[in-house]
C-alpha cells in the first residue's frame, strides 16, 4: 500500500471513530486490570519545561497539548460550515447555538433537582458534550445521514465545549494571568494578519507555526483551557491556508492524537460502590446527562427552528421564492440531542474540579459520568442507525423511482 493510500485511510472519519472507540475500551479495561496502577502512574507523571515554567503530566500534555490540534481542525471545519456549508446563514447558525444553551441549562437544573442543594456544586458535570466521541459515533454508524445533521452536531458540540471552558474559567479557576491572556490575544491577531500574506509562503508558514505555539503557551499559562487556542486559530486563519493545514494534520490527528486522547481519558478506575450506597450525586449525573441533553437540546432546538423556519417560509412566499429547506428538526434533532449526552472527558474534568475535596463523591461522580455517557451512546447510537437507515432507504427509493420514470 502506498504512503498516499495510508494517509487517505488515516483521513477517514470511520477509521478515526474505530481507533477512538478501540483506544477508549482498551484504556478502560487496562485501568481496571493489574496494569492499572502502573499506567495511572505513567500518565500522571510530570514532564516539565523549566525554562518556560511548564510542568504538565503526560495526560495533560495530551489533553492540553496534542488535543489542541484536533480542535484547530474542528474550528476550520466549523468555519467552512458557517460560511459555505450547512450553517451559512444567521438563521441556520442560530439553531445549534440556542440548542447548545438549552443542552446546558436543562441538565444543570435536572442535576440540582435530583441531587439536591447539598450537592449543587456538581451542576456543571452533566452539561458537557465530548466532541470527539460524539462525532466519532456519527462517523461510525451514521453512513447515509444528511450532512446538515453532522454540521448541526459539530456546531452544537463546539459551542458546548466553549460554554464548558467558560464555566471552568468562572467557577473553577482560582486566578487568571491577565498578562498572558492579553499576550495570547496579540498572538491571535498577529496570526490572523500573517495568514493574509500571500508572498514568501515558506517564511509565512514558519511564522504561523511559531505564532500558533506562542498562542498555545500564553493561553495555557493564562489559566484558560488550552484547547481554546486551537479553536481561535482555526477560526481566524485564512480559509485557503486553514483547509490545507487541516488536511495535512488530519492523518496525524486520527492516527495518534485521538487514540492517545481516548486512551488517556478512559484510564479511569471504576469505583467499587454498592448500588444501595450510591449518593444523589451518582443519580443526578447518570440521569441528567442523557435525559437532560435530550430534553434541553430538543426543546430549545425545536423552538428556534419553529420560529425561524416559519418566518423564513413566510418571507420566501412573499418574495415568490422556493420554500427553504427545513433544517434539523423532529427525530433528527432528538438524535443529535441524544448523542450530545456523551459527556465523558469534559464531564470527568468537571467532576474532578467540583469534588476535588471529596474523594468519595468524586468516585461516585466518575461512575455517574460513565453510566450516563454509556446510556447516551446506546440511545444516541440506536437513533443514529435508525435515521441513517431511513435516509439510505429514502435515497434508494428515489433512485429506483427515477429509473422507473426514465424507462
TrEMBL record:
<keyword id="KW-0915">Sodium</keyword>
<keyword id="KW-0472">Membrane</keyword>
<feature type="transmembrane region" description="Helical">
    <location>
        <begin position="329"/>
        <end position="350"/>
    </location>
</feature>
<feature type="transmembrane region" description="Helical">
    <location>
        <begin position="202"/>
        <end position="218"/>
    </location>
</feature>
<keyword id="KW-1003">Cell membrane</keyword>
<keyword id="KW-0050">Antiport</keyword>
<comment type="function">
    <text>Na(+)/H(+) antiporter that extrudes sodium in exchange for external protons.</text>
</comment>
<feature type="transmembrane region" description="Helical">
    <location>
        <begin position="365"/>
        <end position="386"/>
    </location>
</feature>
<keyword id="KW-0739">Sodium transport</keyword>
<keyword id="KW-0406">Ion transport</keyword>
<feature type="transmembrane region" description="Helical">
    <location>
        <begin position="282"/>
        <end position="308"/>
    </location>
</feature>
<keyword id="KW-1133">Transmembrane helix</keyword>
<dbReference type="GO" id="GO:0006885">
    <property type="term" value="P:regulation of pH"/>
</dbReference>
<feature type="transmembrane region" description="Helical">
    <location>
        <begin position="178"/>
        <end position="195"/>
    </location>
</feature>
<feature type="transmembrane region" description="Helical">
    <location>
        <begin position="252"/>
        <end position="270"/>
    </location>
</feature>
<dbReference type="InterPro" id="IPR004670">
    <property type="entry name" value="NhaA"/>
</dbReference>
<feature type="transmembrane region" description="Helical">
    <location>
        <begin position="224"/>
        <end position="240"/>
    </location>
</feature>
<protein>
    <recommendedName>
        <fullName>Na(+)/H(+) antiporter NhaA</fullName>
    </recommendedName>
</protein>
<keyword id="KW-0812">Transmembrane</keyword>
<feature type="transmembrane region" description="Helical">
    <location>
        <begin position="121"/>
        <end position="140"/>
    </location>
</feature>
<dbReference type="Pfam" id="PF06965">
    <property type="entry name" value="Na_H_antiport_1"/>
</dbReference>
<feature type="transmembrane region" description="Helical">
    <location>
        <begin position="152"/>
        <end position="172"/>
    </location>
</feature>
<feature type="transmembrane region" description="Helical">
    <location>
        <begin position="61"/>
        <end position="82"/>
    </location>
</feature>
<feature type="transmembrane region" description="Helical">
    <location>
        <begin position="94"/>
        <end position="115"/>
    </location>
</feature>
<keyword id="KW-0813">Transport</keyword>
<dbReference type="InterPro" id="IPR023171">
    <property type="entry name" value="Na/H_antiporter_dom_sf"/>
</dbReference>
<comment type="similarity">
    <text>Belongs to the NhaA Na(+)/H(+) (TC 2.A.33) antiporter family.</text>
</comment>
<dbReference type="GO" id="GO:0015385">
    <property type="term" value="F:sodium:proton antiporter activity"/>
</dbReference>
<dbReference type="GO" id="GO:0005886">
    <property type="term" value="C:plasma membrane"/>
</dbReference>
Amino acid at each position: 500500500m502506498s504512503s498516499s493510500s495510508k494517509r487517505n485511510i488515516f483521513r477517514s472519519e470511520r477509521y478515526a471513530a474505530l481507533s477512538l472507540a478501540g483506544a477508549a475500551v482498551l484504556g478502560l479495561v487496562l485501568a481496571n486490570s493489574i496494569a492499572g496502577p502502573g499506567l495511572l502512574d505513567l500518565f500522571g507523571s510530570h514532564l516539565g519545561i523549566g525554562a518556560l515554567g511548564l510542568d504538565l503530566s503526560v495526560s495533560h500534555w495530551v489533553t492540553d497539548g496534542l488535543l489542541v490540534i484536533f480542535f484547530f481542525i474542528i474550528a476550520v471545519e466549523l468555519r467552512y460550515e458557517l460560511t459555505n456549508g450547512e450553517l451559512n446563514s444567521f438563521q441556520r447558525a442560530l439553531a445549534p447555538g440556542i440548542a447548545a444553551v438549552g443542552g446546558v441549562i436543562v441538565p444543570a437544573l435536572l442535576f440540582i433537582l435530583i441531587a439536591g442543594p447539598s450537592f449543587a456544586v456538581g451542576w456543571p458535570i452533566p452539561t458537557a458534550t465530548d466532541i470527539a466521541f460524539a462525532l466519532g459515533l456519527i462517523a461510525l454508524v451514521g453512513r447515509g445521514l444528511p450532512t446538515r445533521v453532522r454540521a448541526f452536531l459539530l456546531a452544537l458540540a463546539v459551542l458546548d465545549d466553549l460554554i464548558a471552558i467558560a464555566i471552568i474559567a468562572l467557577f473553577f479557576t482560582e486566578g487568571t494571568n491577565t498578562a498572558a491572556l492579553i499576550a495570547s490575544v496579540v498572538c491571535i491577531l498577529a496570526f490572523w494578519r500573517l495568514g493574509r500574506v500571500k508572498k514568501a509562503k515558506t517564511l509565512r508558514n514558519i511564522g504561523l507555526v511559531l505564532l500558533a505555539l506562542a498562542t498555545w503557551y500564553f493561553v495555557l499559562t493564562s489559566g484558560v483551557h488550552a484547547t481554546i487556542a486551537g479553536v481561535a486559530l482555526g477560526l481566524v486563519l485564512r480559509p485557503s491556508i486553514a483547509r490545507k493545514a487541516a488536511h495535512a494534520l488530519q492523518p496525524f490527528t486520527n492516527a495518534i492524537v485521538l487514540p492517545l486522547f481516548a486512551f488517556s481519558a478512559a484510564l479511569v478506575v471504576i469505583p467499587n460502590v454498592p448500588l444501595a450506597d450510591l449518593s444523589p450525586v451518582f443519580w443526578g449525573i447518570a440521569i441528567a446527562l442523557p435525559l437532560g441533553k435530550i430534553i434541553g437540546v430538543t426543546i430549545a432546538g425545536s423552538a428556534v427552528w419553529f420560529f425561524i423556519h416559519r418566518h423564513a417560509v413566510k418571507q420566501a412566499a412573499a418574495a415568490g421564492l422556493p420554500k427553504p429547506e427545513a433544517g434539523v428538526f423532529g427525530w433528527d434533532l432528538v438524535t443529535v440531542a441524544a448523542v450530545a449526552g456523551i459527556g465523558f472527558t469534559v464531564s470527568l474534568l468537571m467532576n474532578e474540579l467540583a469534588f476535588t475535596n471529596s474523594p468519595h463523591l468524586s468516585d461516585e461522580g466518575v461512575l455517574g459520568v460513565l453510566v450516563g455517557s454509556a446510556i447516551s451512546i446506546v440511545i444516541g447510537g440506536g437513533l443514529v442507525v435508525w435515521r441513517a437507515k431511513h435516509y439510505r432507504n429514502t435515497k434508494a427509493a428515489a433512485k429506483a423511482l427515477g429509473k422507473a420514470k426514465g424507462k
